[in-house]
Specification:
The protein has 278 residues and is mainly alpha-helical. It is built from 10 helices and 2 strands. Helix content is 65%, strand content 3%.
């Protein structure tokens, strides 16, 4: 990865202005609640080893075997571990290339993942040339402590994809729907539509507040930070869930407004009362 964020953990539509097309938008544009993620398997067969004064860091142990075979096993296993991570990073890079809404975030993620690939390839060469067992074991541990592919890099990429999708795709779609409903307001329907529009505006603001600065924060994390704090990504997760919930609420308001405008299925509770306790 780039020097300032080396090794970090770095598994849509627009609303129309016509009412008929807007109904389709209500069903499709805001129906989805999750963005395409960059999910990859997380290793599970591990033991825990302390690293300095930091919290426990997960590193698979070298199984017991004759001393003469241990160095060979460490090299072979390191090659397997590195190959898996390089392939996972390459898959993630290909997926990132399909997401045009990422902008500079996508460029940063791709550059840093490619840097990790280069670093892992160099580490593999180093391990292949190790002649001392303890040196090889220490180098193998760097796969986990210096290159947090599965616990930091890929989860960060997935979170950034979700955040950018929420803010660059779904939020603009919501704002278009708000503008659409405002254009459809008149003296005969304003009492009903206005509270719904107000509620949608509040949800749009909640999305903005919940995601503000999250991508930049995620892109700044390093493996050393994750090694010291395994809850490093908690705040971003809360922000993403909050934004999704707000968009889901706005989706319901929009669908309710469109049903009202089309004279379909009367709503039992007036929206002004629904938003009173929101």
């Amino acid at each position: 990865m780039t020097n300032h964020i080396r090794g970090r953990r770095h598994n849509f539509v627009a609303a129309t202005t016509a009412i008929a097309a807007s109904l389709a938008t209500a069903a499709g544009a805001l129906a989805a609640t999750t963005a395409p993620a960059l999910a990859d398997p997380i290793p599970t067969t591990t033991t825990t080893t302390a690293v300095g004064t930091q919290p426990a860091v997960t590193v698979p142990a070298v199984p017991p075997m004759p001393e003469a075979r241990r160095l060979e096993w460490v090299k072979r296993d390191s090659n397997r571990l590195i190959a898996n991570r390089i392939e996972s990073l390459r898959v993630a890079i290909r997926r990132l290339a399909t997401k045009s809404y990422l902008g500079q975030d996508g460029t940063t993620l791709t550059t840093d993942m490619q840097s990790d690939i280069t670093g892992l390839q160099a580490l593999r060469t180093k391990i292949d040339g190790d002649t001392d067992l303890q040196t090889a074991i220490a180098d193998r541990a760097l796969i986990f402590t210096q290159y947090r592919v599965y616990y930091l890099v890929l989860p960060v990429a997935s979170d950034v994809v979700n955040i950018d999708w929420l803010t660059s795709v779904r939020l603009p779609a919501l704002q278009q729907q708000i503008t659409q409903l405002q254009g459809l307001e008149n003296s005969s329907n304003q009492a009903y539509l206005s509270p719904l529009v107000t509620g949608m505006q509040a949800m749009a603001q909640q999305v903005t507040t919940a995601t503000n600065g999250l991508s930049a924060q995620l892109l700044s994390y390093t493996p050393a930070q994750w090694n010291a704090d395994h809850n490093l990504l908690f705040t971003a997760g809360v922000g993403i869930r909050t934004a999704r919930a707000a968009l889901a609420t706005a989706e319901k308001d929009y669908a309710q407004a469109m049903r009202y405008l089309h004279g379909k299925r009367p709503v039992a509770q007036h929206p002004a009362k629904q938003h009173k306790d929101r």
